Amino acid sequence: MSSISENLKSIQNKIRLAEKRAFRAENSVALVAVSKFHPAESVIEAIKAGQFLFGENRVQEAAAKFDEIRAVGYQPNLHIIGSLQRNKVKEAVRIATCIESVDRIELIEEIEKQAAKINKTIEILFEIHTGEDSKAGFTSEEELENAIKLCSQGAFPHICPRGFMTMAPFTSDTSLIRKSFVTLRNLRDKFQQDYPSLKLSELSMGMSGDYEIAIEEGATIVRIGTAIFGERQG
């Protein structure tokens, strides 16, 4: 069985090769190691192998795990990548450097409220629905633009929008997967042009099964769990 450090090295090599094939600059794609359902020991093993950016879906699980990791002296960056309920925002803001799964204005308002209380600036990505019906994310371009406009007007001083996130549909049809990523990239390009005061450069798209396609289509962040940590333990 491969170790986490070996898996990380293998994934990083594949990311670099995918960058090269797509004529992308080396190290233009960041790796979020998705550690949900895996223990603190596994995260620490990854940190010791040089990985400092992690993703978690469940706030309660993430808080317990990353408090434990930070208590022993490690300072990894944490992205919340799962669907976020308003009653979990306070804890999410406390433990995370970025919330990728921002899919409605009400959530942005709550993030601002909780971040203001602890005087913390937090990065967000706008999650866009580009796949099948079960996926979260903004479905209305009008509502998305309203959220971006409010950010550009300074309505949320403790929030720093950095770009967009999506999940491709679960399918073996690579044309559908690619279409999902192209949709996200086109939205990013449109809104970056329309709102130049914001830095909306990040595209978080691509997971263990489709990250190489995502890199070809412009991903700047890929979210990979199973290929690093193995099958879920919970």
Tags for this model:
8-stranded parallel sheet, single chain, alpha/beta, 234 residues, 16% strand
| Bulk shape | globular
Tally of distinct domains = 1
Query: Which structural class fits the helix and strand makeup?
Result: alpha/beta
The unreliable regions are: none
The CATH superfamily label reads Alanine racemase
CATH architecture classification: Alpha-Beta Barrel
- Average the pLDDT over all residues and give the rounded result: 95
Instruction: Work out the helix count.
Output: 9
Give the neighbour order of strands across the main sheet. 7-6-5-4-3-2-1-8
Gyration radius from CA atoms, angstroms: 17 Å
Quick structural overview:
This protein has 234 residues and is α/β, with parallel strands linked by helices.
Walk me through the structure.
The protein has a single domain, classed as TIM Barrel, CATH 3.20.20. It has 9 helices and 8 strands. It has 234 residues and is an alpha/beta fold. Helix 7 (174-194) links the parallel strand 6 and strand 7 (202-204). It starts with a helix and ends in a 5-residue tail after the last helix. Strands 7-6-5-4-3-2-1-8 form an 8-stranded parallel β-sheet.
Topology overview:
Elements: H1 4-21, E1 30-34, H2 40-48, E2 53-56, H3 59-71, E3 77-80, H4 89-95, E4 98-102, H5 105-117, E5 122-127, H6 141-152, E6 159-165, H7 174-194, E7 202-204, H8 211-216, E8 221-224, H9 226-229
Parallel strand pairs: 1-2, 1-8, 2-3, 3-4, 4-5, 5-6, 6-7
Helix pairs in contact: 2-3, 3-4, 4-5
